[in-house]
Write a structure and sequence with these properties.
Elements (H helix, E strand, L loop, with lengths): L15 H29 L8 H6 L1 H14 L2 E8 L5 E8 L10 E7 L8 E3 L1 E3 L5 E5 L4 E11 L2 E12 L1
Antiparallel strand pairs: 1-2, 2-6, 3-4, 3-7, 5-6, 7-8
Length: 168
């Protein structure tokens, strides 16, 4: 029994060239996907909360003092935003002092901020009404927004409130 034993041969042999092509192809695909993801991330991100964290950190004590002064005022600032039948968002703001009387000599800076994309933020032009309240209209898309109300007197912010609102 000294016959030849046939061993099955594969139709393709694994050569160095095949391994090189697979290696280069794999890393080529990984590099391409990384390039696409980096471009998408850089071109779509506009949600920076602050332009300089260092300067914001330095201003922390001033913000803390402003918050203490705001609490001492004991004002009630009520901002409500609702969708009108025409589709616009209508903002109504009432600012009352500690006795419940409307506060005079102030103006309101209102802003609707998108939580992810700062390019979608809206400044709302607010006007004072005869009853002492403030009203404004904004053309905004449905979704979640952060409503920031700054009560200003002589170009100085004396009160700030932020709240999350959902517009349908």
């Amino acid at each position: 029994m000294s016959g030849n034993v046939a061993t099955p041969r594969s139709s393709r042999e694994l050569t160095g060239r095949t391994v090189l092509i697979c290696f280069v192809g794999f890393f080529g695909v990984v590099a391409t996907v990384n390039a696409i993801m980096i471009r998408a991330a850089v071109s779509t991100f506009a949600g920076a909360e602050t332009s300089s964290a260092y300067k914001t950190g330095l201003a922390y004590k001033q913000e803390e003092a402003a918050a203490s002064a705001q609490a001492a005022l004991n004002w009630q600032v009520d901002g409500r935003i609702v969708r009108t039948p025409s589709g616009a968002a209508e903002l109504a703001v009432n600012v009352k002092d500690s006795t419940g009387a409307p506060v005079h000599g102030i103006r309101i800076d209102a802003r609707l901020a998108h939580p992810v994309n700062a390019r979608l933020d809206h400044h709302i032009a607010v006007t004072r009404m005869a009853d002492g309240s403030f009203r404004g209209i904004a053309e905004t898309a449905p979704g979640q927004w952060t409503l920031t109300l700054d009560v200003m007197r002589d170009d100085a912010r004396i009160y700030r409130t932020k709240s999350r609102v959902v517009l349908k």
